[in-house]
Amino acid sequence: MYGKSGQAVQVTSNKQVVLAEGVGGATTFLLGGCRTASSIITEAERARCVSLMDANRTEWYVHLSGAEVFVDPEYDMVDLPTFEMESSFILHVDTFYPNYYAFRPALFTDWFVRAYPTGHLWAMPLMDTAEFSDSASFRVYDYNTSRKHL
Which DSSP category does 149 fall into? Predict the structure, then answer.
């Protein structure tokens, strides 16, 4: 996965998800089904509800901690139902630009994951600006629905 800027999405040593400066390869994530059965997800959104698991670490999921995006192991969570909601995202295609994807946290109806100017990924309220659209748009390579692999 890469940001619209061309920067690779990586996981840092402290488990933050960032756009990496000068890094050639992106962290590989496996695209999985929705992790929450919560009623916060409408029936219409359920088919687009996804989770992202670090392909190199079983049961390590992309999730929100506050509004910041991290990767943490499911088995390390004290409150599993909350973690399942925090690791569920609604996948949007062509929302900001053709052939780009956007991820809306299931917990927040008008928020999207975007790259903050520091490169850290955060969930933030939707803003009608080119900067927001650019920073909330991601290229996904090797997406194949039969393999569910990003």
Answer: B
List, for residues 98-119, the tens digit of each pLDDT value: 999 999 999 998 999 999 999 9
Q: Which of 31, 32, 137, 35 has the alpha carbon at shortest distance from 86?
A: 35
- Examine residue 146 and state whether it is found in any structural domain, yes or no: no
- Tell me the pLDDT tens digit for each residue of 126-150: 999 999 999 999 998 865 444 444 4
Q: For residues 54 and 69, give the distance between their C-alpha atoms in angstroms, rounded to a whole number.
A: 13
In the chain, what are the helix, strand and coil shares in percent, each to the nearest 5? Answer: 15, 40, 45
**Is 17 buried (19+), middle (13-18) or exposed (0-12) by CB count in 10 A?**
buried
- Looking at the structure of the chain, the number of domains it has is 1
Residue 53 C-alpha from the chain's centroid = 10
Q: Give CA angle at 99 (95, 100), nearest 5°.
A: 55
pTM for the predicted model, two decimal places: 0.89
Domain of residue 54 covers 2-139
CATH number at residue 88: 2.80.10.50
